[in-house]
Amino acid sequence: MLISGRGSNMIAIANNIRSGALPGVEIAIVISNTASACGLAVCRELGLPSAVFLSKGRPRAEHDADVIACLRQHNVDLVILAGYMRLLSPEFIAAFPNRILNIHPSLLPAFPGLDAQQQAFDYGVKVTGCTVHFVDEHLDHGVIIVQRAIPVLDTDDAKTLSARILKEEHEAYSEAIARVASGDYEIQGRRYIKRN
Ligand code: GAR
């Protein structure tokens, strides 16, 4: 699992693993690209193994090579981006084809990039949500696995909206991981199809 910040999605997934909701899934290693990520302190509390590879000022491919080596050392099968605010190099994506998942706080393809919740709020959409997708070489673009929609309320501001989206993220990510871990799916073009 790769994080850069508070790691609330990581915590939600770890809790679901603990409660038995994600059979066969375990977190092999949590990697942060910043030393100050609050999620790292949570890893210590939860007893999750963690590592830091600082990305600031380093060429992307060089930093990614360290991360890939660490993931391989831990024999990971799936790479879960959980608030990892760094683009992956083509080498990283090629190292784990269709095995990297990301969560994004909008209904893609609407509002890719930074501050998706604020973008949706400012645009005035009436429905938004979150998307879990496979990562490909384009930003917030890969095949969609799960989406959850919520209404934008007249009483919302970007903060209340973000909080309600985050609640959905915490469920949607585990649902997507369970689906992918089960292997019961196929990808046809841009479509993720569940087999049963
Ligand atoms: C989440 O809202 C996630 O969707 C978003 O960052 C937040 C991380 O929160 N990711 C992106 O915007 C990626 N484009 P967390 O650290 O508490 O999981």
What is the compact description of this entry?
The chain has 196 residues and is of the alpha/beta class. 37% of the residues lie in helices and 20% in strands. The protein starts with a strand and ends with a strand.
Can you give a write-up of this model?
The chain is α/β, with parallel strands linked by helices and 196 residues long. It has 2 domains: 1-96, Rossmann fold, CATH 3.40.50.170; 103-196, Rossmann fold (3-Layer(aba) Sandwich), CATH 3.40.50.170. The protein is built from 6 helices and 9 strands, in the order βαβαβαβαβαββαββ. It has helices spanning 8-18, 38-46, 60-73, 90-95, 116-123, 158-182, and strands spanning 2-3, 30-32, 50-52, 79-81, 100-104, 127-134, 144-151, 185-188, 191-194. The protein has a 4-stranded mixed β-sheet with strand order 4-5-6-7. Strands 1-2-3 form a 3-stranded parallel β-sheet, with helices on one face. It is globular, with a radius of gyration of 16 Å. The structure holds glycinamide ribonucleotide.
